[in-house]
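Supplementary Methods. Inverse-folding protocol.

Structures were first reduced to a discrete structure-token string of length 478. This string, shown here, constituted the complete conditioning input.
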């Protein structure tokens, strides 16, 4: 089965300098750009016309010297940027550094009759990419084979996308590839990343509750006027009051009543993925904006305070047969403490920017900065630098500067910042379903043999590069 990953919605490009292009007759609004649904586009015909070339060679067309570097002592490898694929690189590195996810990918077996061609098989290309990161000799690996399996064109590598949207569409494609159309099968992603959220309405008169359970892969937290992750969670679970013209028709009271409508966390996943909604829409200026203010988050997050604490009476709860997915989890706080291990960071403004990641290695307990081709060790203290900007007096420190310079400084501070965008936590305790992916796995033998061949080719190319570098041709004129 071949699955396609449609590219996430493209952020609007930054305004041109001069001259501005003529307005298009049907330009979508910024709101449609933010909330536009993802459409699956079939690019098979376009890709079929192109010749797929092997990417095993460590040298590109320009012979970049950095591709000849050996893997660092840390053992971690960078990913080359195809043009604007930093968002992809930061997510792939985070998934690779997740042991359970990597083991699940390695344990998958390719079947040509079920999974289609190798070029268009996402789990297979992810296997190969992970194997290159783990067993390859080169310091940098490219992702072209993976993006081709998505069905993306080369032009799409130069478009700015959103990493959270990629996270969702990639997981959806992997779920379909792992289950191969069998709805009874459970993909590893469901065991590791899916939680259950209750959507409820509670009558304020008879206390009758109607609720529905929904699955979630990540939690999107509103951070406008919020300064901590804990406060964002409190706002997320705070119910809205339905009153006045918005009263709810209670089936028990047989009339419209005041009610509370909200969400409750019923079952938390092993890996808890959070998105900080830093991209918003300013209705005053009618523009897409980025919220750069300071939002702190802990290294250890206690989620027990945000779970559903009440065991509702059966007669007061109406749950659909297809929506009754799970029982309430144990509310012992020790079983709901999460440790932060991955931070996906956005640097720039609302119209575009750059993604990179801070990731904690479970093997040595150290934090590393993954920034495309660069992988460097970092201190835990550096995490505080991506909380966001402190609110300061705009006039402070500007007494001796011109009015125009002060305006420009204030505008830059309001438009650009390097801040945490996605956080991934791992629960400190495990269930039996989650433990099945603990066993260390290796990629299939034929993939390891492929990596060995690529390593041999890399060493040959490296020796040739060194020979040419150290033996310069001199031409003498006399």
């Amino acid at each position: 089965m071949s699955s396609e990953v449609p590219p996430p919605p493209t952020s609007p490009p930054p305004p041109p300098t001069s001259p501005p292009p003529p307005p298009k007759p049907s330009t979508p609004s910024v709101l449609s750009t933010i909330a536009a649904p993802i459409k699956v586009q079939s690019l098979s015909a376009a890709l079929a016309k192109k010749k797929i070339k092997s990417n095993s060679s460590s040298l590109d067309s320009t012979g970049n010297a950095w591709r000849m570097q050996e893997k660092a002592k840390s053992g971690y490898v960078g990913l080359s940027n195809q043009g604007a694929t930093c968002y992809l690189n930061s997510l792939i590195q985070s998934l690779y550094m997740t042991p359970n996810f990597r083991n699940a990918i390695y344990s998958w077996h390719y079947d040509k009759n079920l999974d289609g061609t190798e070029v268009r098989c996402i789990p297979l290309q992810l296997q190969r990419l992970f194997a290159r990161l783990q067993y390859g000799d080169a310091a940098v690996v490219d992702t072209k084979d993976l993006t081709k399996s998505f069905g993306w064109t080369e032009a799409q590598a130069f478009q700015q996308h959103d990493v959270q949207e990629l996270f969702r569409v990639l997981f959806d494609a992997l779920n379909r590839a792992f289950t191969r159309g069998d709805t009874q099968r459970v993909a590893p992603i469901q065991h590791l990343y899916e939680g259950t959220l209750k959507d409820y309405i509670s009558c304020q008169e008879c206390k009758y509750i109607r609720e529905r359970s929904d699955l979630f892969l990540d939690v999107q937290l509103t951070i406008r006027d919020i300064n901590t992750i804990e406060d964002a969670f409190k706002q997320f679970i705070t119910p809205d009051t339905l009153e006045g013209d918005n009263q709810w028709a209670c089936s028990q009271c047989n009339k419209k009543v005041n009610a509370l409508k909200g969400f409750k966390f019923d079952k938390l996943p092993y890996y808890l993925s959070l998105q900080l909604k830093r991209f918003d829409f300013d209705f005053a200026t009618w523009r897409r904006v980025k919220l750069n203010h300071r939002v702190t988050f802990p290294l250890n997050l206690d989620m027990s305070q945000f779970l559903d604490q009440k065991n509702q009476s059966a007669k007061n709860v109406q749950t659909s047969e297809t929506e009754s997915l799970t029982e309430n989890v144990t509310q012992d706080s020790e079983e709901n403490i999460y440790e932060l291990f991955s931070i996906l960071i956005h640097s720039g403004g609302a119209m575009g920017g750059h993604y990179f990641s801070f990731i904690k290695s479970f093997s040595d307990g150290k934090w590393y900065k993954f920034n495309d081709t660069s992988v460097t060790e970092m201190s835990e203290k550096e995490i505080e630098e991506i909380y966001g900007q402190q609110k300061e007096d705009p006039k402070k420190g500007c007494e001796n500067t011109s009015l125009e310079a002060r305006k420009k400084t204030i505008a830059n501070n309001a438009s650009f910042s390097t801040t945490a965008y996605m956080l991934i936590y791992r629960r400190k305790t495990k269930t039996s379903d989650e433990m099945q992916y603990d066993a260390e796995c290796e990629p299939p033998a034929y993939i390891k043999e492929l990596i060995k061949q690529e390593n041999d080719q890399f060493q040959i190319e490296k020796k040739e590069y060194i020979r040419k570098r150290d033996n310069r041709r001199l031409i003498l004129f006399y």
